[in-house]
Design brief:
- The protein is an all-alpha fold and 264 residues long.
- 82% of the residues lie in helices and 0% in strands.
- The protein contains 13 helices and no strands.
- The radius of gyration is 29 Å and the shape is elongated.
Length: 264
């Protein structure tokens, strides 16, 4: 985004020689500093107004994309439209002259594109789009979260761990990030670290998924009583009794109880 540069300030300061200072006196100094104050105030006003106008433009641009996508029938048509839009933005000479504004506009388009690819089930394109978002905004915690989750699905656990670590650094109160990092650590057989992540996820948000994952980790550690405690906690919650998770939990309980009988 371009900002207006105010030039008169150095000229005013440069003109204050010892002779002129003696001549202008206190009233002159007050006038000079008053002028400086007004110039600074004007500069900040112009910057704030430009920023506010830019934010409104971004909101409108984002809404226009949303409505345009809703007019299209298939996910592929939506992906094609967004890729064409991104190409035009990158090739537009006006955007090349204002790269900061171009990147803000591109960021909105890529966010929509990542959503489209995710709903299409195209993990690789979703991953690549998340990488583009991160290039444009390295502080976007959700882009790291989504990319890390895809890396985990692909079995690329080291990369997944790096992205989920970054997510937690940027959004330390996001329970799902701890849950997903716990899954990655469990797959890497870092069980104690996985337990710590699931416990943190539960502290932040009473999620049955985190209890289930923590129960599975206790099972891997052969701490069967603790595994059962976590599984049974899910079934004690009325909201979860009809969920898809219920069958998996019940099956896990049977496996653990059967194993404990055979061990005795």
């Amino acid at each position: 985004m371009k900002y207006i540069v105010i030039l008169p300030l150095p000229l005013i300061l440069a003109s204050c020689s010892s002779t002129s200072v003696a001549n202008i006196g206190i009233i002159g100094f007050i006038a000079i500093f008053g002028t400086m104050f007004l110039l600074f105030a004007l500069m900040f006003f112009l910057i704030a107004r430009r920023k506010k106008q830019g934010e409104k433009s971004l909101v409108k641009f984002n809404n226009d994309i949303y409505f345009a996508l809703n007019r299209l029938d298939t996910p592929q048509e939506k992906a094609n439209m967004l890729n064409t839009l991104i190409e035009r933005i990158n090739n537009d000479e006006k955007y090349k002259k204002d790269t900061e504004w171009r990147d803000k506009v591109l960021l909105k388009a890529y966010m929509h594109l990542a959503t489209v690819y995710y709903h299409m089930g195209d993990e690789m394109q979703t991953l690549n789009t998340c990488s583009e978002i991160i290039k444009l905004d390295p502080k976007d915690g959700m882009a790291y979260y989504n990319r890390g989750s895809i890396y985990s699905n692909m079995g690329l656990y080291e990369k997944a761990l790096q992205d989920l670590n970054k997510t937690i650094e940027l959004t330390p109160d996001y329970a799902s990030a701890y849950n997903n990092r716990g899954l990655v650590r469990e797959k890497m057989e870092h069980y104690q670290e996985a337990l710590a992540d699931f416990t943190k996820a539960i502290e932040l948000e009473e999620s049955p998924i985190a209890y289930y994952n923590r129960g599975n980790t206790y099972y891997e550690l052969k701490e069967y009583n603790k595994a059962l405690e976590n599984y049974n906690h899910i079934l004690q919650n009325p909201e979860d009794k009809e969920s898809d998770l219920k069958k998996e939990v019940e099956q896990s309980i049977k496996i653990v109880e059967e194993y404990m009988k055979n061990v005795k």
